[in-house]
Amino acid sequence: MAKKNADAPPGEEKPAGKSKLKLIILIVVVLLLAIGLSVGGTWFFLSRGHKAEDAKDEAKNAEAATPVKQVALYEPIAPAFVVNFNQNGRQRYMQVSLALMGRDKGELDALKVYMPQIRNEMVMLFSSQDFDALAAPVGKEMLRQQATAKVQELSKKETGKLAVEQVLFTNFVLQ
Predict the structure, then answer these.
(1) 99 and 166 belong to one structural domain
(2) Counted domains in the chain
(3) What is the 8-class DSSP label of residue 31?
(4) What percent of the chain clears pLDDT 70, i.e. is strictly above it?
(5) Which parts pass through the membrane (predicted)?
(6) What residues make up the domain containing 26?
């Protein structure tokens, strides 16, 4: 056994250069792998942010495509309506102030031409009411809905459009 150790010349030991070369290659591979993972992770998170921005942009585009409800405009009808009617042989009075609610200023302005017809329809409607029914909130709401239907019907007939969305009571007095 001593011969085997003696066979190797003292200057020829295992080369240290090969193990250093393996170490350098291993370090370079680890560094490249770390850089690759860093770039990949950055790209992943940034692209995910773009997807969120794209989704927001698509939502904004969808909002722009859907019609946006315009601001409500109110057109008061002046002067207030004062009507009288008989209730069980007793003279009763009702004073009602109205406002027309619409969304298009041009349509509301076009309806002003037909204001005498609207006033006539409202006077006829208000004077045909029952005092006891109007004393209850439900009766007032029913009257408001009937007034809305009358004005919408007249608006559709005369202008071809529903210029009025609702008729609102701004003052309601029964005596």
Answers:
(1) yes
(2) 2
(3) H
(4) 79
(5) 23-46
(6) 15-68
